[in-house]
Each structure stands twice: as C-alpha cells, then as structure tokens.
C-alpha cells in the first residue's frame, strides 16, 4: 500500500505523521516503523505518530519511538499532531484528543501549540536526582558543564542502570540560568540517543526544579538544543496541576511510502 507521510518537528524533536483514520497502516510492524525512522535507510525521525479516529474526542494519537515500539506519551509529538490535525482540517484552534496517558486539551496560536499535560501527583527526590512521570518516565539531574557533557554515554548508562533497568527512563541534564530559565539536554529512551528536545522531559525539568526549590516561579522557560519551550503549572498540596507545555510545531515536508 502507498501512504502519504508528513514530517513535522517541534523544537527539533522530529516525527513522521500519518493519517490512519482508515486504519490501513501496518502499525504492528516494528521493523518497518524502525526503518522509516532510520536517518540513513529511511525518512529519519525520533518517532512515528498515527492520527486515528476516536469515538468522542477529535482524534487519537498513537506514538512509536524510533526503535519501532509503541511507547508512553510524547509531549513534542503531541504538539505536532495538533498542528497536523489542524492542517487536515479536523480541528480549528482548540482541541481535545486521546493519547496513551489519557485526554489532552490543546490550543493553537499561529505556530505555537499549547498542550495540557496530565497532573503529576508524585515527585521523588533523591540526593543526586529527581524522578517523575509526566506521561513518560524522567530522571532529572543538575549539571554544571552542560555544553561539554557526553549526553549519549552518560544518559545511556543511567537509562539502562539501576533502578530503571530494561523498562528504562528518559534522562535530562539541567543547568540553571536564572529563576525562570533552565538549559536542558535529554537522552531519550527508544531513540537511544540525545534528541534536540523532549516535551515531557522539559515538563519534568520545570516541575523538578520547582520541587527541589531551585525556583518558585510557575512559568519556566527551557532552553533546549532545538529551541525554547515554556512550561506553566500550579502546585496544590504537592500535586502539580494545570500543566501546559508551550512551543512551536512545524510542518517540514511530505512524501510517499510503500509498505
Ligand atoms: N520525545 C518525547 C518523549 C517520547 C517518549 C520517550 N522516548 C519514551 O519512550 O519515554 C517528548 O517530547 O515527550
């Protein structure tokens, strides 16, 4: 079968998007999805996302990492699929859609997509790092020399080591620039490399920095290798609520694949 694919990126986290409302895409073929995401033998992407129909909401998002496996929530992918649904004419400037971690609301203002994330009821603090789940599991640790850090090597060791082991976690390294601005580099599980930006990752970083007292702000700017993102939230009795991930999401190109 021939499918039209669309390439989108959100602060350099790039995705193949496919309109699968007819449920024709070979979604259980891990090898094919991995090949499509390969940067030398395929289209090249950090992940592949299917837009499918949902009974009560505007659409459903199905997310696969570049390794071909379906995974947990992707924040940048969530912002990209909203831009894609808008391009397809499925939605206007606001939407409610289903993802693997539940319902999400989103708002569109030009190329800025504001995505509401699930509440975060628990943030685990350790001497060296913070662990929390923002739709995907995230290890967050502060670093003084972010620019020279070997993110792939150290991130991989942490992702595969105790206590994460085979299930793994995404690993975020952070430097504080000021009360409301932090720089972040992320090693992504399922891509098994550093990506230019991770949406659930910067969300985790903003909340972690608040939880450990590095900031009292509730609107944080995160500088990633692929650009700026913003995260806003409320903290009520140690649960983080009303969390929004804000940033650009853009169409790159389209093409055809046969599989
Ligand atoms: N790029 C993502 C996170 C995608 C999921 C992650 N790789 C995992 O498997 O946990 C984002 O923008 O949130």
TrEMBL record:
SUPFAM superfamilies: Diaminopimelate epimerase-like. GO terms for cellular component: cytosol. One of its GO terms (biological process) is lysine biosynthetic process via diaminopimelate. It catalyses: (2S,6S)-2,6-diaminopimelate = meso-2,6-diaminopimelate. The keyword Isomerase applies. It is an enzyme of class 5 (isomerase). Transmembrane segments: none annotated. The active site is at 74 (proton donor), 74, 198 (proton acceptor). Keywords: Amino-acid biosynthesis, Cytoplasm, Isomerase, Lysine biosynthesis. The record marks 138, 188 as: Could be important to modulate the pK values of the two catalytic cysteine residues. It comes from the Bacteria. The keyword Cell membrane does not apply. Belongs to the diaminopimelate epimerase family. This is Diaminopimelate epimerase.
């Amino acid at each position: 079968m021939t499918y039209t694919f669309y390439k989108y990126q959100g602060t350099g986290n790039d995705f193949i998007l496919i309109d699968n409302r007819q449920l024709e895409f070979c979604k259980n073929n891990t090898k094919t999805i991995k090949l499509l995401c390969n940067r030398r033998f395929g289209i090249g992407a950090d992940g592949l996302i299917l837009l499918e129909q949902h009974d009560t909401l505007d659409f459903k998002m199905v997310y696969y990492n570049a390794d071909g496996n379906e995974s947990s929530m992707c924040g940048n992918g969530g912002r990209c699929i909203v831009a894609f649904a808008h391009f397809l004419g499925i939605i206007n400037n606001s939407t409610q859609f289903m993802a693997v971690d539940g319902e999400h609301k989103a708002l569109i203002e030009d190329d800025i997509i504001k995505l509401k994330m699930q509440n975060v009821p628990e943030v685990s603090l350790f001497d060296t790092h913070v662990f929390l789940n923002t739709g995907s599991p995230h290890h967050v640790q502060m670093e003084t020399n972010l620019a020279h850090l070997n993110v792939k090597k150290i991130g991989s060791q942490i992702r595969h080591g105790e206590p994460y082991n085979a299930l793994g976690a995404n690993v975020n390294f952070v430097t504080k620039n000021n009360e409301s601005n932090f720089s972040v580099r992320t090693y992504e599980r399922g891509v098994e490399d550093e990506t230019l930006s991770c949406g659930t990752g910067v969300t985790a970083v903003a909340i972690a920095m608040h939880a450990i007292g590095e900031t009292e702000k509730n609107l944080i700017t995160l500088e990633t290798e692929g650009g700026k993102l913003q995260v806003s939230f409320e903290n009520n009795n140690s649960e983080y609520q009303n969390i929004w991930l804000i940033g650009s999401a853009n169409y790159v190109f389209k093409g055809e694949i046969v599989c």
